[in-house]
Amino acid sequence: MAQAIRQLIIGTRGSALAIWQAEWVQSRLRELQPGLLVSLKRIKTTGDRILDSPLAMIGGKGLFVKEIEEALVRGEIDLAVHSMKDVPTSLPVGMEILSIPAREDPRDALISRGGVSLEKLRNGARIGTSSLRRQAQMLHARPDFQVSILRGNVDTRLRKLDAGEYDAILLAAAGLRRLGLEQRITEFLSYDVCLPAISQGALGLEGRADDRFVRELVLRLEDRSTRMAVTAERGFLERLEGGCQVPIAAHATVDDQTITLRGLIASVDGHRLIQGSSEGPVGDAKKIGVALAERLLSQGGREILKEIYEKP
User: Fold this and answer.
1) Do domains 7-101+202-222 and 108-188 have the same CATH topology?
2) Which residue, of 8, 152, 155, 218, is most buried by count of CB atoms within 10 Å of its CB?
3) CB of 276 within 8 A of CB of 219?
4) pLDDT band of 52, cuts 50, 70, 90
5) Which of 52, 78, 86, 144 is catalytic?
6) Domain 108-188: which topology?
7) H/E element holding 126?
8) Residue 1 predicted with pLDDT over 60
9) What is the 3-state secondary structure (H, E, C) of 216-260?
10) Which fold has domain 7-101+202-222?
11) How far apart are CA 187 and CA 192, in angstroms?
């Protein structure tokens, strides 16, 4: 695979958002290396096939990346474009996140019928979300809400809202912005109300560690600040051994050479919510994430997670 010029195949999920993300990478790579042949290969993942169950009930990690990674291992594709929040902290042998481009808005967004703000939503409002993390934080802020699991792509979720099945739904602001749907957002939720998923808004370009051609090419899309923020957040995630079935959240910011990380562990019903923050030099990004996780575990987070994992 050492040719000066070759065809590069990008593996991606088939949703509108995943295709947008893959096409964005495709376009940038063509700009960086004119004449390079870059094509997309759509791959259906476990998370895409099972739409009638909450993600927390399906179990396991890598629900939206496993089949794409397998194609990468087999050499059927040369590069995988993921939403980093879907990527487990442990990658297949020989695989690596070669590049993390600049992050889109990491906040969660509220989309409501009639443009009603979170504060003014009626008592007992029906809220749709696919995330236990969002569910827990919403119930912590508004215990009166009726939160129910909402699966499907962005268009499907918006259609269900418009049909009156929900008073409001929660989605990642990054996906709405990338799809040109920012005008649908009623309110960007502050980090004090809803801390984002680990790595939300960031893309991960995964490839084979020994593929120098792809590595050198995609490294030109790397954003160091985003890489450091994501590293801290994923350090937090790795220590907690978290996945879709656990209401945990983290968000890091980088200011010059200092990284600040906020993290959270919550019970599914939102009654208990433990959070904290930590900061330090960017070179210690992962250590900062692990240390914050340890602190929250010692403050009651361990008991919360134990109850969640042991629940039948």
Assistant:
1) yes
2) 218
3) no
4) low
5) 86
6) D-Maltodextrin-Binding Protein; domain 2 (3.40.190)
7) strand 126-129
8) no
9) HHHHHHCCHHHHHHHHHHHHHHHHHCCCCCCCEEEEEEEECCEEE
10) D-Maltodextrin-Binding Protein; domain 2 (3.40.190)
11) 14
